[in-house]
User: Which sequence fits this backbone?
């Protein structure tokens, strides 16, 4: 069971996560808007989406207990190092949310038509699928996001120890929650952590993905 | 426009809470 301190921490994370979701109008636009016809429109739209996404990510991170006590430049290095991974994780959640079931095909089509090379899109969809198969609870997404952001071995981090301590507190809660939510699957926690490795791979390929997009 | 900002600029502005300025 979670200690009262851990329950409080989880509550903070969930509040921060729920307050910083993608605004409904942007989510709707992503799925239903048909008036984006040219590549330029698509470029502007996806850039706006990405900017909002980063802003939300920063707002979420600012509210994580302990984050603001870290060195300011370390805060920036953590966010810079994790933004792409955290965004892929959020997009996987969005993609797998039941609410969007009827729109998933539309969203998939939009991503396929984005101009990004198929070589990158197929692994992306495989990732979404593999995350979907884990049937993660909302708390698991929120905690995993915090864990991704608070990765101590990002470039330019000066005080790795403080970051590691913070990350550990979230890892401990996630491990306990996994046991509660998936009592019949003792491997669940390990599988979640395995997704982090996949996220790192996406992050490494992200620049190439953008390049292929621009070239197209 | 936001599309001209780099990732670090967006992060710095959002961290300082003055993104719209």
Assistant:
């Amino acid at each position: 069971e979670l200690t009262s301190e851990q329950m409080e921490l989880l509550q903070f994370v969930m509040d921060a996560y729920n307050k910083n979701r993608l605004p409904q109008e942007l989510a709707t636009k992503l799925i239903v808007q048909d008036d984006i016809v040219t590549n330029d429109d698509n470029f502007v739209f996806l850039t706006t989406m990405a900017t909002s996404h980063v802003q939300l990510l920063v707002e979420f991170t600012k509210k994580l207990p302990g984050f603001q006590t870290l060195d300011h430049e370390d805060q920036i290095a953590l966010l810079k190092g994790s933004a792409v991974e955290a965004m892929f994780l959020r997009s996987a959640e969005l993609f797998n949310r039941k609410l969007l079931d009827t729109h998933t095909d539309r969203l998939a089509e939009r991503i396929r038509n984005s101009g990004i090379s198929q070589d990158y899109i197929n692994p992306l969809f495989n990732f979404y699928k593999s995350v979907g198969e884990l049937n993660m609870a909302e708390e698991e997404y929120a905690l995993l996001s915090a864990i991704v952001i608070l990765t101590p071995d990002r470039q330019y981090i000066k005080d790795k120890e403080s970051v590691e301590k913070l990350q550990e507190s979230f890892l401990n809660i996630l491990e306990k929650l996994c046991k509660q939510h998936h009592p019949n699957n003792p491997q669940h926690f390990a599988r979640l952590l395995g997704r982090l490795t996949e996220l790192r791979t996406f992050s490494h390929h992200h620049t190439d993905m953008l390049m292929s997009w621009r070239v197209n | 426009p936001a599309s001209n900002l780099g990732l670090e600029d967006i992060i710095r502005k959002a961290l300082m809470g003055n993104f719209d300025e």
Summary: The interface with chain B takes residues 43-44, 47-48, 51, 54-55, 58-59, 62, 72, 75-76, 79-80, 83 of chain A (CB under 8 Å).
